[in-house]
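Quick question, first post here. What does this chain look like in 3D?
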Amino acid sequence: MTALRPYTVARYGIYAAAGVALISVWLGVRAGTAFDFALLRSVFYFVIVAALGFGAEAVLLFTPLPVPPPPAPEETEPSESLEFE
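> Answer (accepted):
Ran it through. Tokens below.
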């Protein structure tokens, strides 16, 4: 478990996927490709980037937190009763 709220990475992955898809359509149309081909390509990019976002979320949710190291034993000073007079 992490300190992030559930589905935070997946939510931003969907936002990123939508942004990549829109940029893909825009660049494809500006380059002169047909609109339907540019739209199909953008759907492909959306699915790939969304899958990456959900995959990253799954990795973060199912990765256990590392176990903290055990506390170091405290060094005790020798007792005064053991000293020689």
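The chain has a mean pLDDT of 83.
The helical segments are 8-30, 35-62.
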